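To fix ideas, we close by showing one paired sequence and structure record:
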Amino acid sequence: MIIEQIYTGCLAEAAYYIESNGEAAIIDPLREVSPYLRKADRAGARIKYIFETHFHADFVSGHIDLAEKSGAEIVYGPTAKTSFKSHIAADGEEFKIGELTISALHTPGHTPESTTYLLKDGDGKPYCIFTGDTLFIGDVGRPDLAQQGDLTAEDMASTLYHSLQDKILTLPDDVLVYPAHGAGSACGKNMSNETFDTLGHQKAVNYALKAQTKEQFVKEVTDGMLPPPQYFAKNADMNKNGYERFEEVYEKGLTPLTPKEFELLANRTGALILDTRDPRVFAKSFIPSSVNIGLNGQFAPWVGALITDLKQPLLLLVEEGHEEEAITRLSRVGYDNTIGYLEGGIAAWEAAGKDTDTISSISAEAFEDIYKEDPNVHVLDVRKPGEYESEHLEMTLARPLDYINDWTHEVSPKETYYIHCAGGYRSMIAASILKARGVEQVIDISGGYGALKTTNLKRTDFSCPSKAMKI
């Protein structure tokens, strides 16, 4: 018996490879499927099933491409409806993988079709559960993504409570829990950095499983939920109804362009120029109006949160050798319209005599001196609301990067804005977007809040409500 968790950190996503006696199954595969095919081929195994725990909203699954290439059957849980060939399992239906048995346990609540897959070993003993977004390590799935008709998030949370109580918590304590996500995913709010655990330990430490009543569970699970990123519903639709083949997306995006071709194509198509370099490198020289979202962070989720049109043409500027990585990571969240990249990067652009722009960056100590001279400076804290509410500088305005498309109309192009996040990744994204939208005087505070905390600037703690004044 082989069970391998294939964890992708930038998406905080876990797929699973299961193998027994020459047969294999994949659970919740990512968009690019060649790694699964190679793994099975090396083992001399045939991929028999592709199990989907639900219609994922935070990434595009590779189920369709993988089924086409392997001949495997796609399996969803009860109530799922797809526009492609799939097997809709009955609650309790069993599937054989070599000597192993996998049972579909219908566990709605995160979504109506959410299903947990229980794996039993060759002796029929429950060994592990693949819980998708029903049960995480330290958390449970958010119940507000798939509300239907008059159903509310509270209704779905109530359904989730019964799924957990009736289908999962009745299993033996030594059963391993393998979820679809870990810390950093927007599918929950309190996930652990651990990516698996025993069910017994989760019963003891998971806040949601310790709720004494259904009412307490519903209140705790729905309290403090932020709105889901805008791309979630679009990814779920792609997973239900199909998408362009990954090879076609890859081939289209992997088109090298000279500076002249790059500029002409940008003008002709209205493409967004996405610069994926390190924020500090980007700030020193970049193509005017380009947006910086670095590959060295949670690249794909931030693209999904901030670029509202999945069909938006994208032109890439990347560090040499990272073209394939950028295209792949974009496709994982449904951004399939990359139309090329700048060959030779920013050096080629500069050598061609093309215009460039910069973003100033100052130290926390330098900002402290500026603030002492002028306490009325505009300071934007682009961290998440929870981060801001726990602790922030007294003079800052809470302007979360997640919602920059909602608050940029409040920013005056004539003013100067100092921007910080926790460490510098998100603040440069925000600065580049504001600059692209005509705000010329944006200044990044290097090191973010971590550096600012070492100064003598006055801070407020969690008891202070967020500043809501207009900029």
